[in-house]
Amino acid sequence: MKAFVCNEFGPVDIHKVEDVTEPELLDGQVLIDVKAAGVSFPEVLIVQGLYQFKPPFPFIPGGEVAGVISKIGNGVEGYKEGDRVIAMCGNGAMAEKVAASAASLTKLPESMSFPEGAAFPMNYGTTIHGLKQRANLQEGETLMVSGAAGGLGITAIHVGKAMGAKVIATASSEEKLEICKQEGADEVVLYPRDMDKDKQKEFSNNLKAVAPNGIDVIYDIVGGDYAEPSLRAIARNGRYLVIGFTAGIPKMPLNLTLLKECQIVGVFWGQFQGLEPEVNKQNFDDCFKMVTDGKFKPLVSHTYKIEDSVEALKFIQDRKATGKVIVEF
């Protein structure tokens, strides 16, 4: 079978598509004929050896998969050959076939396409866990999303709006902000690519202008120099969700948490879905219902063939992605 293989850590373009052996099926696993694999920023880091988890060589990147079960392993219940499913498989998704634990599977509704399904696991799983379990977002509250035009940010707009929040989207270009408005954002705020002290103050003031009573929940994907000015615009009893830090790990002035009586809350969906699988399953059921009720439609912005996997990773690396990037089979 064809797969995008990483034999050593290095720049994105040194990795290639190769013919590899079909994965062996272990007890408790199913074999999935991959129809679409989600590609995210972690894959860009993993193949370069820059991620916190470093798989042994050789490995096939890609943790999100949508496809059809072609074989059932011993001890698997509740699934059969031919079922349409999505799964988080850790690694291995950027291949024609992948073995995945049955515990990681969710049945894909017939109303959703495979690319839409591959856009779901990590991004929507992270977002609904963050907004429900970690932030306890309430109808009528104000939600700010940083880096809102990317694959993860768009899901926060979708789910936040579906939960009844007013959504403020922030991004680095007018083009990206326009996409955020099209996907449901109520307000948009532009931030500069290079942030100095004056620009930090300006960004914070712009946030306060669209949220004069403060921001109840901040969904921060970007971090870096953008974090502190966002925190300065938070409301009393606000919740600052640490989702990621594509601009670097920020150093936050903790006196602000005292003055604002706010919380800084970590969101680690990968750990949560392993420790609380039943709650995670309910989260996905809630998200699927939002889709079937017409609250939102997953945004798949770019699709690539497996032979073009390097281009897919470069597209994300260059911060060009808006919505989800997919490798199709």
Characterization of the model:
The protein is α/β, with parallel strands linked by helices. The protein folds into two domains: 2-120 and 298-328, Quinone Oxidoreductase, Chain A, domain 1, CATH 3.90.180; 123-269, Rossmann fold (3-Layer(aba) Sandwich). It is 31% helix and 26% strand. It contains eleven helices and 15 strands. The protein has helices at 41-46, 114-118, 121-134, 151-162, 174-182, 197-210, 227-231, 255-260, 269-275, 277-292, 309-317, and strands spanning 2-5, 16-19, 29-39, 64-72, 84-88, 97-101, 105-107, 142-145, 166-171, 187-190, 215-220, 234-242, 263-266, 300-305, 324-328. Strands 3, 4, 5, 6, 7, 14 and 15 form a seven-stranded mixed beta sheet that branches. It is globular.
CATH superfamily of the largest domain: Medium-chain alcohol dehydrogenases, catalytic domain
Beta-strand portion reads: 25-35%
Straight-line distance between termini: 11 Å
Element pattern in H and E? EEEHEEEEHHEHEHEHEHEHEHHEHE
- Number of separate helices: 11
> What's the quaternary structure here?
single chain
Assign a percent range to the helix content: 25-40%
**Class computed from helices, strands and strand pairing:** alpha/beta
CATH class of the largest domain: Alpha Beta
What is the count of β-strands? 15
Q: Biggest β-sheet: count, sense, barrel?
A: 7 strands, mixed
- Uncertain spans, ≥5 residues at pLDDT below 50? none
Average pLDDT taken over every residue? 95
What name does CATH use for the topology of the largest domain? Quinone Oxidoreductase, Chain A, domain 1
CATH architecture of the largest domain: Alpha-Beta Complex
